Amino acid sequence: MTTPPRKTEVNDLAELVTLLPPPGDPRLPDGRLQDLKGHFMSEIQHAAAVPPQVRGRRLFIAASAAASVLAAALAAGVVMHPWDRAGQPAPIIQVLQGDASAAAAFLNQVALVAAAKPQEPVGAGQYIYIKSRVAYSILGDGPRRLDDLHDREIWIPQSPGGHGRLREAGRPSDLGITTSNEELVDLPSDPDLLLKKVYADTLGQGNSPDGEAFTTIGDLLRESLMPPKISATLYRAAAKIPGVVLVPDSVDAAGRHGVAVAHVELGQRREWIFDKTTYEYLGERSYLVEDTSDGKAGMLTATTAVITRAVVDRAGQRP
Predict the structure, then answer these.
(1) Backbone phi, then psi, for 105, in 5-degree steps?
(2) Alpha carbon distance 175, 85 (integer Å)
(3) In the predicted model, is pLDDT for residue 216 greater than 60?
(4) DSSP state string for the chain
(5) Which of 213, 156, 237, 262 is nearest to 41 (CA)?
(6) Is the separation of the CB atoms in 238 and 263 below 8 Å?
(7) What is the pLDDT of residue 86?
(8) How many CB atoms lie within 10 A of CB 65?
(9) Close Cβ partners of 82 (under 8 Å, ≥ 6 residues apart)
(10) Beta pairing, strands 145-146 & 127-138
(11) Is the model's pLDDT at 23 over the cut of 90?
């Protein structure tokens, strides 16, 4: 019996976009949000020195000292936690081929779904609560290792002047006055204007303009509560970044499978993972896609999963 030839990965991925369940009949709300000041993007800065082992990589800071912990880990794939110096050997995962032709279509579909969601009301004195499961690489003596999966909880004030709070691996931290969610989502509502601003405000940062743009948008999406239309604009802007590909299967830190969009820099792929049916953002994953001095292709360098995103009345309160 003759076995039919298997479709190529590119054909499989392109077909995946057409097979994904439609999100109903999402329609963008009438009108357009007026262009916001966008001053948050101008506040993006480097707040930590790059460890010498990272060979040209950078630690990207967005919004506050709390955001820097996660942003740095995912951007560079490296973090040293004081509570865990041992960790587990970094697992090796399968490196699947990405498809650039399907990435833009998928991100624009995600944007349609995001724009159709109702906007959650947030009061001036309230906080955005986000709980995640995370694990990052550890650099030290010997091979790179992955620290144990642990919970990360952050409370972001909705309005300027509020004190942020972080609890990671059970250890609480008062972050002091941090960038508010209101400032965080103060972004242009046109994808071309937003992307142009991202490139301008991150000029000279990171390893490449395109990689830095992908990193920046990912950092903005991860720990915030975006208005639906601004969230959709971020996805549409990401669809315009050269080098972004669709990966047919990815797994977040909670073990949930999804479709990912990804970008590669210095032999490392960073993925945003989405539910295959609802297009809900699940988390991120970073791993090597080629052998480097840091490790073998497929070595996991970071994994996260957003478990809860909610509005609460005070820092430290859980929904």
Answers:
(1) -60, -40
(2) 24
(3) yes
(4) -PPPPPPPHHHHHHHHHHHSPP-S---PPSS-PPPP--HHHHT-B--SPPPGGGTT----B-SSHHHHHHHHHHHHS---BTTBSS-EEPPB---PPPBHHHHHHHHHHHHHHHHHSPPPP--TT-EEEEEEEEEEEE-SSSS-EEPPPEEEEEEEESSTTPEEEEEETTEEEEEEE---HHHHT---SSHHHHHHHHHHHTTT-SS-HHHHHHHHHHHHHHSS---HHHHHHHHHHHTTSTT-EEEEEEE-TTS-EEEEEEEEETTEEEEEEE-TTT--EEEEEEEESS-BTTB-TTBEEEEEEEEEEEEESSTT---
(5) 213
(6) no
(7) 55
(8) 16
(9) none
(10) antiparallel
(11) no
- Token pair listed for 162: 């509020």
Distance CA 284, CA 222 (A): 9
Distance CA 234, CA 125 (A): 26
Query: What span, in angstroms and rounded, lies between the C-alpha atoms of 12 and 9?
Result: 5
Q: Give the residue among 165, 234, 162, 168 at the shortest CA–CA distance from 195.
A: 234
Distance between CA 256 and CA 104 in Å, rounded? 23
The model's pLDDT over 46-92, given as tens digits with 9 standing for 90+, comes to: 222 233 222 222 222 233 333 433 343 333 334 444 344 456 778 89
pLDDT at position 185 over 80: yes
| Distance, CA of 139 to CA of 131 (rounded, Å) | 25
CA gyration radius for the chain?
19
Task: Return mean pLDDT, the chain.
Answer: 78
103-125, pLDDT tens digit by residue? Answer: 999 999 999 999 999 999 999 99
d(CA 59, CA 202): 13
Amino acid identity, position 137: S
Q: Which two tokens stand for residue 240?
A: 């315009």
